[in-house]
Amino acid sequence: MTTGEGIADLRPLWRSKDQKAWYWYDWANSAFYTTVLSVLFAPYMATVAGKAAGCVDADETCSRTVTLLGLHLAAGSLPFYLTSFATIASAFVLPIVGAFVDRSSRKKWHMGGYAWAGSFFCALLFFMEGDHWQIGAVAVVLASILGGCSLVSYYAILVDISTEEERDHVSSRGWAFGYLGGGLLLAVNLGMFLGHDAIGLEKGMSVRLSLLSAAIWWAGFTLIPMLRLRNYEPVNEVAVEGTLFERSFGQLFTTLKEMRAFPMTMTFLIGYLFYNDGIQTVIYAASTYGSKQLKFGDSVLIGTILLIQFVAWGGALFFGRLAAKHGAYRSILWGIYAWMAIVVIALFLPEKNVPLFMAVAIAIGIVLGGTQALSRSFFSLLIPRGREGEYFALYNAAERGTSWFGTLLFGVVFQVTGSYRPAIVALIVYFILGAFFLLRLDPQRGIREAGNAVPSAL
């Protein structure tokens, strides 16, 4: 690649252009993860499956069963079984996708292809109505898996378009862009859902249109990085024979054997599994804790969801600046300590105290965006050049394959104690374990072992 010899080094300008294009995919895919997976899909699927199961009032929790692949599953639990299945399936699929991506000179086309296929299946959720839940079951599983595949390519591109010094800044801005985009569409969709009578829509149609809007948003905004990003040639390919598909498998197996040579990378990955599981469970359990334990109504909970979404936008940018001064490693640790404080404070929140509940939500938003964005950028420094797809696939697959640990602990503690207060504070164990492994990590050693330059702030 030319650098403008005799005039100037144009690479920073090219990288800046690519980075601005790259941010838009965070904006694009966030619609699926916020509007669909986080908020609307589960209750709507439970309602549709409840009608099929013969529940008189399908809007209530339905314990009657529907049959899926010979299994009799409670209608109210069906959406959670489906997302869990997609999560586990992704843990097996993503590493193969990552190895394939590393050997390809068309990373952005992999990202776009998976994104558009995922958005197509997301759009099929519009046709889930009445008691026809089956199309929604197939669609959400395939959309979730394909969305994960697109993120493997997206994360791998981060390393192509940024230097080690730029990584935290770029990742933080991308994550902030995602929270802003996802929050804007979610605000519109929740407004349409809450005011469906005023605009002449049935409740079910308002949800279906919201699900469709997420698919259109995802597909439409993916066009921006596809048109503006450049493809990069693969580097440091593992020497294995066969077709591209066979070589991808060979590279994956070689990488899995060689991971013992990168103990710091493994240490971070294990720590990330714990603290990220704690984060995901807090977000998952927040609405249940607010409604069942603190006795808040839907309007407060919906407002809290949107507040966290928009505060997380600022939180990602704040942590990006924090990392520029103090380094990503320290900033992630500080974020984990903040999560510990949040779950302890949540234990003592009084019922129906909206200001205190919102204050905790603001704290969650600040550390949520920051810890996730910096985890992505810091992990990229621990990856050998040319293996980004595989390692980020393992990063995503391991996260997805263990994401049920926190919810299991939350459920067990509630069952034993009969209260959500000890259940929420029990999650502190995941943050303690995450901090334990991160404190055992030597970041400079890990970055050097991976063959990368150590940033000035770490």
TrEMBL record:
Q: Which domain of life is it from?
A: Bacteria
Q: Where are the transmembrane segments?
A: 21-42, 78-101, 113-129, 135-157, 177-195, 207-227, 266-287, 299-320, 332-350, 356-379, 391-414, 420-439
- One GO CC annotation: endomembrane system
Report membrane topology: Multi-pass membrane protein
For whether the record's keyword set contains 4Fe-4S, the answer is no
Recorded hits in Pfam families, A to Z, give: ATG22
- What InterPro entries would the database entry show? Atg22-like, ATG22/LtaA_families, MFS_trans_sf
SUPFAM superfamilies recorded: MFS general substrate transporter
Q: Which residues form a coiled coil?
A: none
Localization: Endomembrane system
Instruction: Print the keywords alphabetically.
Output: Membrane, Transmembrane, Transmembrane helix, Transport
Instruction: State the PANTHER family in the record.
Output: AUTOPHAGY-RELATED PROTEIN 22 (PTHR23519)
Q: What is this protein called?
A: MFS transporter
